[in-house]
Protein 1
Amino acid sequence: MTNPDVVVIGGGIIGCCCAYYLAKQRLKVALVEKGSICSEASKSCQGHLFLWELPAINIKLAKASKKLYEQLYNELDIDFELRNTGSMSIAEKPQDLETLQQTLNELRQAGVECHLLSAKEFIKTEPNVTRDISGGASFPEDGQLNPMLTTIALTQAAKKLGADIRLFTEVTGIELSADNYSIVAVETTKGRIGTKYVINAAGVWSGQIGRMVGINIPLVPRRGNLIVTEQVPDNIINCQIIIASGYLDSLKGENKAAVAANVQQTREGNLLLGSSREFAGFDKNVNPEVISLIAKRCIRFFPVLAGLHTIRNWAGLRPYSPDMLPIISSSPIEGFYVASGHEGVGITMGPITGKLITQLITKQQPDLPVDQLSVERFAEKQ
Amino acid sequence: MIICRCQEVTLKEIVQAIAEGATTVNEIKRRTRAGMGLCQGRSCSRLVRKILAEHTGQKFAKVRPGSFRPPVRPIALSTLASLEKDTDDKS
């Protein structure tokens, strides 16, 4: 292949979405990935399309992204298991119900459809939930997909549009023009690729890629552990995504280690039990204490889970940005773009991120304003 | 012919995944679910590696097994939950 127009670094959900939308605009795309497609954070998650994470900008991004997923579901050749599941939140104690009520008011203002439920109403919809709850809420707009099949579907479609997918190829450097102003080439373990545009979609490794061109991207790995159970019937939980109160709190950056019960069922029938957040560097080992606590918290809400079996536990690294907003941005280096830092909503925001980056590169009006998401908010003050 | 019994993945599906670009056991797993079931690939991993070796012209010994994670055998969630004591939820 002759030189591509754009090199996308990273084969997770963000890189795959960027590659697809760029290829659709007839740009010549090369995607480079140090492992295989969907081999890090994207494969380590629950595949939840989470449409109620404040602030308002996140909700706008998530809503737009969900719409794009619906289009992709028709466009792409592989059935990536997209479902409109909705989600539910459990308020454990009376004060959790009060907090939830306030959150719902904020969410409604941001345009989220949500409904407060009494304990009685919640139990009626979810007969297996413990009687010892204070109530809850439902969020009909949430959804779910299979991240592995989604990324594969996107890369396969991008390939059809001419994209060059280079796996097991690690970026080792980025060559800039003599005036350090623009991109000349990307150096990899499998050779040099001349290009004018680079998209840094390297997830928790985005900081390393940023350093190659002198741009500060202060992302920190935030580990999440998950438990997967054997395949079980679909009547253990009726709504496929049920999250206990405490989850929104666990997202906050000041929480060094947090666990919140988060029970989800995939289309194939396995339950994915989460969730946890810890700052543990780049260590991807499962933390047995955290796994145990997750099991305990999930059983606390659904006692019926106690008898089910877990077949696998794993951990992955979310790219946490200090202000919990993603980076979807051009940069002071001409041609260098950043699409990263989505923390727990990379799957949710993948398509809108790919589309916005494509609009920035092709100088089209972005679907949503991206000023707040600029990488320059982290520029080191001189 | 079924290769992964837990997830009922056929030889044909695995060969197709290789034709579509999978070069490792993990990539085949993500595409087909081979090895995602109750036994976590303990029965089919060798077979999948063999098929990969044959179709990609690699030596069997060069094809690495997929990733293994805890637990070694399926265990009840109640057992897992009891590993940990006396810690509150928002520790």
Protein 2
Amino acid sequence: MSRLIAARRFRAMLLKESLQILRDPSTFLIAFVLPLIMLFLFGYAISLDPARTRIGLALQDSSAPALGLAQAYENSRWFNVTGPRDVATLKRELMAGDIRGIVVIPQDFSRRLQTPEGAVVQVITDGAMPNAAGFVSAYAEGVRASWAAREQLAGRAAPPLELVPRYWFNPELASHFFLIPGSIAIVMTMIGTLLTALVVAREWERGTMEAIMATPLRMPEFLATKVIPYFLLGLGSMTLCTLLAVFLFGVPFRGSAFALLAIASAFLVPALGQGLLISAVTKNQFVASQVALITAFLPAMMLSGFLFEISSMPPVIRALTYIVPARYLIPSLQSVFLVGDLWGMFWRSITVLLGFGVLFFTLALRATHRRIA
Amino acid sequence: MLERLQAIIVKELWAILRDPRARIILVLPPLVQLFVFGFATTLEVKNFDVAVYDRDGGHWSQEFVQRLGGSPNVRRVITVSSSQAARKAIDERSVIAVVMFDQQFSANLSAHRPAIIQAVLDGRRSNSAQIVAGYLAVIADQMGAEIAAQRRPAAPGGSRSAVTNWFNPNLDYLWFAMPALIVVISMVSGLAVTAQSVARERELGTFDQLMVSPLRVHEILIGKMLPPLLIGLLNATVYVLIIAKLFGVPLTGSVPFFYLALIFYLLALIGVGMLVSAVSQTQQQAFLGAFLVMVPAILLSGYATPVDNMPAWLQIVAEGDPSKHFLIVSEGVFLKAMPATEILLNTWPLAVIAAVTLTASSVLFRSRME
């Protein structure tokens, strides 16, 4: 009998929490509108693919080879060429960020082509944007090399050695194929940690937490009623993102829905645990929101391997990434979309994530108990 | 009037700085973020593992593997002995690339026939994979050039490119990331502090008390604007000092003009924060609303990817993003010795954003009062 009452009590609380979520428009914004905006931005705006970069051309030689090379730059699909202009004007444009590079074909270009030293095309890049600068220098040289090969000016035979790259899983090299699955991890972090931390901290701040604790509801039950609605909200938002990723953005989905569900569920456990822990420790909405932002959202964005390669980071920072749950989610998430079911990898990340979850929930439970005492 | 203003400013500063945890949260994490994210946010690819599947085992494949191992960017070269093992190494992400030599590789090279090295790369990380493919191609090109030079004396003439990287000769990513982080971290804390300070009073009901006090609406707004402005200026000053002195990023431009732009940037952020809190009822709504603005603003600022790579209509949207304009100033003042006119050209949009958002929020507050 008492078990029946307990079950009814649990259901009633669960309903109360769920209604509370559905009533607040800001929850809806974070769970469904922000994911849409993020997916949209990662699908259209944020691209790590080489795009047409604006460069300036300074043509100081009017010989046929110089004009031919200038033509090659203008026809290149990698560059949007302004000019030809004088170097001083282009310098100002580079300073203002209107162009990202300058190609100078010098005065005696065609004459020097015949000398033993050869002719030098000067490439100036905007080093303030290192990534764009690397791109400009690599592709500017590429344009020159293919022009030289066409003109046979180098007078050399085909290179004896050639490297042929093949890209598995993503032969089109579309960066949104890995950015969109990665952004699903960010969305789940926001719902799991940020939203939960904020909502529960609010109850602490207003004192309604103590009121609820005075009810016969047991502590783990109580935490469960807080967490289950957000767990479902997180999965709902993940599903929405996946459908959009596949049907709107054409990201391939080569794994199984079950695997995706398993990985996502495993990730939500530490995310929710962290949210509860933050709220129980801070008990203040402003501090909770800032802590959640700094310990969950920003690490998920910056230290998870989502945008920035972990192996390139210095050792201390690399060590720090091991305590970011999103780090274990992103490879599996990208694989379930682009590769298929790699259960060996999935089980490993699910185990680690659940381990983090147990840790966070235990700490949250202890922090809550201590607060009451 | 000055007395009233002074009173509200003291009250607002006190409201934020009273809580010791809030004091810590406003100063310490931004510093930690500067260090952690400054080093973490690199689009370089270093320190990666490569697998080699060598079915040739001859002199030339060994030569390539040796050069590969000698590359400063490669951490480990792993040997695999079957295509299944190669597949597994990529699938499990233990390596980013597998370099494959066919059985004829050395024989082809020795017989002056064209030889091909196959590289399989992990397309899940297509951006990094392309950079790695670039490294591998450079090694192959150098080796090929040396082999060609041995076969016959170098043919003179021809053309080549000489690259100069202005503002950042070694393309040190830190030099880009650090000035950009001033923009991002100021935004995160500035928006949060502003949005929260109004919404908190709203939630507690004390905002109505403020409204019925002798204070005028614009005085209340100034009182609310000053603490985030001061905190933002303080944090930014600390960042500038650390970035210039500790990390040695050159500070080449005019510092007074940088501060001028910074003040307008902070005012624009405060305006956006005010607007968010004017339309929210609770702290939760204000914070989540601020977050809803913050994430797209950071993504559109040009920090993650250049604004010129975005579609044209989105570039127009980015014009309304304060961080887009201040990122140009911050990078420019640090690295480019940006002239004052250029700084001012990027400051007036900030002034416009600040004026529009602050006016709109004061109208909203006033309409609420009536």
